Predict the structure.
Amino acid sequence: MLNKLKEIEDSGINEINGSSSTAALEELRIKYLGKKGALTSILRQLGTLSSEERPKVGAAANVVRQKIEARIEQKLAELESLQLDLKLKTEKVDVTLPGCKKEIGHLHPLRSTENRMIEIFVSMGFDLVEGPEVESVYNNFDALNAPADHPSRDETDTFYISDSVVLRTQTSPVQIRAMQTRKPPIRIISPGKVYRCDSPDATHSPVFHQLEGLVIDKHITLGDLKGTLDLFAQSMFGEGTRTRLRPHNFPFTEPSVEVDFSCFACGGKGCKLCKGEGWIEMLGAGMVHPNVLAGCGIDPNEYTGFAFGVGIERTAMRKYNINDLRLFYENDVRFIGQF
Ligand code: DAH
């Protein structure tokens, strides 16, 4: 029986040495050491041996089991390290290859201009509020003191949803919403989209953006308006920028003004950009009309206020010297990528 054990040991070790996969090793483990394995069948026969032989054969069988077990473990480790080497060889990453470049976008110039405008007014203490783009005729026209026959009410100028609902033509109706829901002192700005029945050309678009401003308090004067717009002009276009007020007419302000900024290109001397004027038209503004205040339940004898509305496209066009409005909407990355 000792010979038989020796045979088992030799053939086991041989087979283990020759195996080339962990699965094959597992099969050998069962073949030699399993319940029905070669070694177990020897141990089962121990009972037939004499009491002298029995411990010798038993001890020898244990030694064989330990040898085979140890060899299997060793071989397993060898195979695993071989597999790892193979993986490292075949799956290596060439870190010197050029990567896949991801184009990272940035804010649209209109959005970054709007953000800068908001930042400037918020730093002066204005609250940022929003209003709906679908607005009542009342808020868009009536409450803003627009006479019944005002040309802007015409269907050729304004998109009507129904007789009493329009796509807002200006951000000014947000003034009405603010005065109806807040108590003075009121200091708000409201940027957003506005809509007009215009065919697109270099200076017109059926959708564009404005930023509305409104201040209501006791003792507010045109001087406060000018000071506020001076600070805006300087923050947006540079320290030396000056403002000029020219008389104008809006239904919702009295007096009404158009506001020019000194030319950013020539500083006011006159150049190609300002067409020799030295000034560039920027926005509409004025002192809130007493009818508008009273209509919102604010006593015009106690409170006064100023308002202004500035085009965001116009501001961006002036800032970046862009001469065609349509460029903003075409989404040509060759244009947008420049800002
Ligand atoms: N709503 C005017 C427009 O769309 C701009 C404007 C002018 C707004 C004077 C104002 C203002 O608040 O006081 O042309």
